[in-house]
Design brief:
The protein is of the alpha+beta class. It has a domain at 3-39. Helix content is 32%, strand content 17%. It contains 2 helices and 3 strands, in the order E-E-E-H-H.
Length: 90
């Protein structure tokens, strides 16, 4: 059940009420009987898993950047064909 915070327009007192989402909002101050308004509160967010921390994000980007500059390993066929090209150009 959500917890809502209200503030009285007359006396300025703040109070909380635990209500169902479908319930009508409180309209009368319990202290002075004045008009109250529901306050908007920030929502708590919990990040779970990898990728949310600065170190996680940087580690992934640095490995992906170095991975793209690596050359594919040479095979014996590649080295033989390059030797033949060098011999023919002489």
């Amino acid at each position: 059940m959500p917890l809502y915070e209200y503030q009285c327009q007359s006396c300025g007192i703040r109070f909380e009420r635990r209500q169902h989402i479908g319930d009508e909002p409180v309209r009368v101050c319990p202290e002075c009987g004045g008009e109250v308004r529901r306050l908007i509160q920030p929502v708590g967010i919990i990040f779970k898993g990898s990728g949310f921390y600065v170190t996680d994000n940087r580690a992934k980007s640095s490995t992906s950047g170095s991975g793209s500059t690596k050359k594919p390993p040479k095979t014996s066929e590649d080295s033989g064909s390059s030797d033949k090209k060098g011999a023919k150009s002489d």
